Every structure is written in structure tokens, then in C-alpha cells.
Amino acid sequence: MQSRGSTKWHPRGSQILVCVCCTAAAFADPAPPLSPTNIFAPASTPAKSIFGLSLFVLAVTGAIFLIVFTLLLYSVVKFRKRKSDDGREPPQVYGSNQVELAWTIIPILIVLALFMATARVIASVQKQARLDNAIEVVAIGHQFWWEYRYPGFGVVTANELHVPVSDDHHPTPTFIKLLSADTDHSFWVPRLAGKTDLIPNHPNSMWIDPHEAGVYLGQCAQYCGTQHAKMLLRVYVQPRADFDRWIQGQRQSATESSAASQGQRIFETTSCIKCHTVAGTVANGHFGPDLTHLMSRETIAAGAAKNTPENLRQWILNPDAIKPGSLMPAMQLSDQDLDALTAYLGTLR
Amino acid sequence: MSTESMAWPSTTAESRPFIDQLHEWATTVDHKRLGILYIVYALVFLVIGGIEATVIRIQLIRPHNNFVSPQVFNRMFTMHGTTMIFFVVMPVLFGFANYLIPLMIGARDMAFPRLNAFSFWMTAFGGLLLYFSLVGANGLYGAGNAPDVGWFAYAPLTSQTFSLGHSTDFWTLALLVSGFGSIGTAINIVATILCLRCPGMTLAKMPLFAWLNLVMAGLVILAVSPLTAAQIMLLLDRYLGAHFFDTQAGGSAVIWMHFFWIFGHPEVYVLVLPAFAFASEIIPVFSRKPIFGYPVMVGATVAIGFISMSVWAHHMFTVGMGATVNTFFVISTMAIAVPTGIKIFNWLATMWGGKIEFKTPMLFCIAFLFQFLVAGLTGVMMSAAPFDWQLGNSYFVVAHFHYVIVGGILFTLFAAFYYWFPKMSGKMYSERLGKLHFWLFLIGFHLTFDFMHIPGLLGMPRRIYTYEPGRGWDTWNLIVTVGVFFQAAGILVFLGNLIWSYYRGETAGDDPWDAWTLEWSTNSPPPAYNFASIPEVKSRRPLWDLKHTDDPDWKYE
Prior knowledge:
The complex is a heterodimer of chains A (349) and B (557). Chain A has helices spanning 16-27, 45-78, 97-126, 240-251, 261-269, 272-275, 309-317, 319-322, 335-345; strands at residues 135-142, 145-150, 155-158, 160-164, 174-180, 185-187, 196-198, 204-208, 214-219, 232-238, 299-300, 305-306.
């Protein structure tokens, strides 16, 4: 991970651009991360290319800011009307072609430099060829959750994306095809890559190659309806062996458990199965998240709550209490049925 | 009728029955009265839009706050954006253009006075229609419902599938109706400037104010038309089964984005060119020097007008347009920084060597220069498409465009209010209250919008009604919200100053700033016919020539 030297706070901190430059430098060290979603703490090649470009752009715009700011400040102070003013008009100057030419040509040159640096990064990120051993994922945006499909492995899951670590010796980038089932969404995990929109009828793609294991956070970045705010993204980057083990687990069908048979009966005789799939049972709905391996996830409701029995029970009882505007209806079950159902869901490992 | 309107605004107007005065205002075709109607109308909506912003910021003051529900929050940001763009900034700019252009070019009225009145009332009706959604949108269901699709209303969120009831229809019709008003006023401004200039005022001798508004009006005609077309298509989609944007039936969400932004980006320049116009009139007067590089300023304005039509898709760098298209919009967007930079340098050079007087209008203009510099540079950052893949749709963008619209446009608007208030009312505003307003608003603005950049850099997307703790966003959001209260206090002082000064202010005189353009040669407030005899000009600063017969401008221009 890169660490930029200077974290000094310059005295003209009230001006935002200096702020931005300093913070950019200060934020670049993720050691105690300022934020798990800091765009200046990249952990994957696309995010790193953007970070490199952004430092160059910040340096250029920062320099322009300092120069023009100083000139403005100087002229405002120096040419203020003095108390001792004689009341006469100052010399009337109408213009000068030489200086006009200078401050036309210099900005043009700066713009050209910025443009060329930018064009290079656009090409390097957008024209990246797919490696043969790349992991392929289809991400489908729904109001207000994420569906992930791994066509190569026959795995379907929701809300928590698992990908392998990619290092220089064994590059295994993940290519993500982005689709939408309803409205526009945007996939944004700042430390891994810039955002790309999920638009119905308009398939998009992006790629990431995280260099370090860990959980990377993000969230939907295109307003998609009432619960846009709680459409959170979690990307689990795992060493290859762990990732393979996870894939193996996700390929299994649900195991029957006699202890939870009452809950299973409730699940299968109410409208749950209209929207949810539990592989190996009659539940094969596609409107909501696949629940076959619900217990392998750390969160429910697209990251809005921790996956605990209490939260799960609350969620089934009244989703609006956790995520108002969510499309899951309150199930109107008795306490007894609710307990049984929660117990059944607890067996879906 | 004509004798009556000629009497306005002499003191006898005060003694007429209220109903008569109201009737006169409602039926007026006088450009000055319509200008004031536009301005007052916009001020009312400024307060409404400001209240909406305050609700948004209170909700975001801390993570997992429950001040309003997500449904209400989504309506608030939709109404805030729509109101501020279409029913505050555009009308107030049209108001100043209406009031000032005929006076500045030595005309007695706009070219089409009746079209002028029609346009104002269309805009006014549009705003009322938008807010009628609060009681009317759900119709039979009883409770009202404001639009909640965001001010750029991306498809397919606006389709009947995702937007039930009529809130989206109110939004669509409000913009459609006010759009007709905008186009009418734009045609009027172009015709007035091209046809009604007084003798001697060639295009090269017009005040920059007129030039900037000419280009602005041209952009309105080009930009609002596609928006109007898109609104009609959306209505067809929703009610007649057309499938332009209906993705479930094979329509294209991306086409809506193109339609919206080919309006939306020129619209930014529609708003900012009049702001430049105010700065270009006020900075010279308070620096006691003519504008530096007038021909270059005109050229830069026209260049901005043309380039601004080719940059719209920089709002769409994340929708998957492909590397080639992205690259094109990078260079076109960066190109617009050049003429804009030239303008900043020319204003700087205008102050250079002058004798700067820090009256309230000039204070606002100086703050504008610093803030617009920052706004321009954050714009350059986002024109680098890959950087925009991170910054786009984050709070960084929200901070950036508020730097443009508040730090740039609203600051010059305040300057314009103070600068021309003596002309419009005949009274001088209170300089003390003006400065109090300036400092309150400056502090509030910087607390809010400087610190708003940072959560964006830390990954906070816009349009979320709440956020998770532990993302490093909490402190910044708190500071941002605190700034809002300083801004609100500033606005109250401003409105108080206008009202108090209108009734109690000192008489201003015809030319309180010792200024140089034609509006200062007539009475304050000007009579209905503006000028007793149509003036004749020889230079860009006709009043300078009058005041300095020994050293007139026309010898040098």
C-alpha cells in the first residue's frame, strides 16, 4: 500500500483546494483508515490507476489555485481604495493583446497535458482484455439489493460478493457484468474501482483485481428509489483456497433438518417461496434474494442489518422497521410461526 | 391605460385602492414591473427551496437519523433541486435581464411586451403546478404527494411501474409549462438586444451585460427545447403506451439521460452567464476602471456558448459509453475551462491598478471570484473521466455544483440585488445590514460547501436519506449542517434589509455608484417610458463620456 509523505496541514486550510490536496496526501495512508470507502486508499488496479491520475490532476489544479488565489488576494489588498485617496479616477486601461494571448495559450497547454494523462487512464481501464483465468460474475441490481451469479461455477448468491485475491504471481481478476432488473443502480466500491452504472437494457461491465484479502465496502451510487440509501455493497476478498471452499459450499443444496421441519412447512406454505429460492426445495422464486445459504452471510437486507436471529425475526415481522420502503412485505405471522420460521432459516448454511 | 402606467411609480400610486394596484400588476406588460414580478416570485421560491435544503441537512446531521422518512427525504431533494433551478435561479435571472436590458441599451421596453407577460405567467403557473402536487398528486387517495424521482428524473424510475400516482406528471407538466415561458422570454431577449439598441450602440459597444444575456438567451432556446421534447415523450410513455424510455418494453434509459443532459449542461451556462454579466458590470464600477479586454470577454462568452453544447455527456461517464466517447467528452469539457479561465483573468486585470471600494455588491463579487475559481478547478478534476468514476454522484459533485450555483451564481445575484436595488426602488439599502448578510453568508457557505467535498472523497454517495456510522462521514456532515444555519440567518438579514430599506431607506438618487451604463442616466426608479428622449451613445461607457468630456472613452475604443 502506498503512503505519501507529507501530512502537514498548511495554514491556508480554509480554502478547500488546499484542503483537498492535503487530505489527498493524508488520506493516502490507509494504516488506520480514515474511512473504509476512501477513494485515496486504492487496493485494486483500476482504483490505483485512478488514484495516480487524481494526484496529477490535484497537483495541477492545486498549483493553478495557489497562483490565481495569490494574484486575486494581492490585487484586492494592494489596489483597495485608501483613506488618503485623492478622489481622482485611476488610469483607465482597456486591455492588452499580449497578456490576453498569454492567458489563453498557457491554459490550452495545461488542458492538453491533463487530457493526455486522462486519455491514457481511460484506455488502460476500459480496454483491459479479459484473462483466461478471470473470474466471471454477473451482478444484477434490484430495488434494493444485489444479486450475484457465477456462471462458471453455477452459484447464485446475494448482497455479499466473494472474489479471490489477485496478486502479481497469480493474477485472477474478476470481471463483473452489470445488469439491472428494474431501475438504474450503480456499483461503487471506492477502494476497488470507480463506479459503473447498472441500467436496464444496457449491459455494462467492469473489472477488479484486489491485491489484499479483506472486506471492501461500498453502496449503490445511482438513485434507484425509496431505499437507495440502504442498498449497501460488501465485497469479500479471500485467498484463493478460501474462495474455492466458499464456492464449494455455495454449490450444495440446502440440507433437510428435521428439527426445523415446522419452520420449513411455514416457509413453503406462505408466500415466501413466491420470491425466494432455497435450492433443493419447492421454493424457487426469483424476485428476492436466494436464501439457500443465508447463514453463510454476515448481513441481511443488503447490508442494512447484521445477520442475527433477532434481526432476522424482526425483518420477517416488519421489514419497514429496518428498511422502510423495502419491497419485502410484512409477513403477518404469529409469534410461534415466526420463531419456527427463524429457526428454519437458521439451518440454511 | 397609458397615462396610468406613465404615472407609476410616483407617489400617487400608493393612494390608489389595493385592488386597483393588484390589477395593474397582474395585467402589466411593462418590462420593469415584470422584472420585479419575476424577482419577487423567485425570492418566495428561494425561501421554500431553502427550507427543503434545511430539512435535508437536518436529516443528515448524524448517521441513522430519523428526522424524516426516506419517502419524505426523497421528495425534499427532488423538490429542492427542481425548485432552485427552475423556479428560483432562472426566474430571478430573467427578472434582472427583463428589468435591465432595455434600460442598458436605451430602449423603452422589451421587443414583445405581451409575450413577456405571457412568459412570466407561464413560469409562475409552472411553479404553482409543481407545488400543487403536494395536495393533488395522489388524487383519490387523499394524501398529497410531491415528486420523488430526483431533479434529473432518470428513466425508468419515472415510468408508471415505478412511479405510481401523479407526482411525476406534476413534475413533467410543471417543467413543460415553465419551459414555454423560458423559451418565450429567451426569444424576447434576443429580439430586444438585436433590434432595440439606441442610436450609436453597435454590438461592439453594448454593455457586456447585454452580450452575456444574448448568449444566455440563445442557449435557452437550444437547451430548453430538447427538455420540452423529452417531457412530452415521457408523458406519451406514461399515458399513451409509447416506449421511448420504458425499459421493460425495450425502451432506452440512456436516451433519457442524453435528452436531459443536452438540456442540463447548457443550462448550467444559462445560469452562470448572467452571473458573469453581473460581475462584468459591478467589478469595473467598484474598481473605477473599464472592463479589461472587452473584445476577448465577448469572444470568450460566445466560445462558452458553443462549447457548452458539446459537453453534456460528462454527466454520463459512468453509464458505460465506451472509451472513445468518454475521451471525446473529456477534451470538450476541459476545453471550456479555457474561455472560463480567460474571464477570471480579465476580471482580475480589471481590479488590477484600480481603486477598489468594498461596498456590499463588490464584496459579493470578490467572494464570487475566489469561489468560482475553486468551482472551476473542481470541475476540471471531474472532467478527467476516471477521476469522475470515483467522484461522480458522490457528495464531491454536490459540493462542486453548489460551489457553482451558490458560490458563483447566488453570490453575484446578491451583488446584483444590492447594486441595482437603488435603481429599482429609489431607496438605498443599509450598508451595515448588507455587510452583516455578506459575512454570515460567507461563513455559512464555506462551512457547508467546503466541508461537503470531503465525505464525497470518502465514498459518500448523494441522495441517501441516511448513512452508516463508521465510514468517517459523521463529523463532516455535522459541520455541513451547521453552516446551513449561518446561511439561513444571512438570507433573513438580506430579506429584512430589502423590506426595511424599501420603506425606510434613504433616497438613493439617480446614480449612487457614479456608474457608466445607461440605466443610471434615468430616474430611480425609472419612469414607465424609461427615457424622456432616447439616448445616443458613442462608447461602451456613455456616462463616463458625459462625466469626462475632456477624456471620453470613444477616443480609445
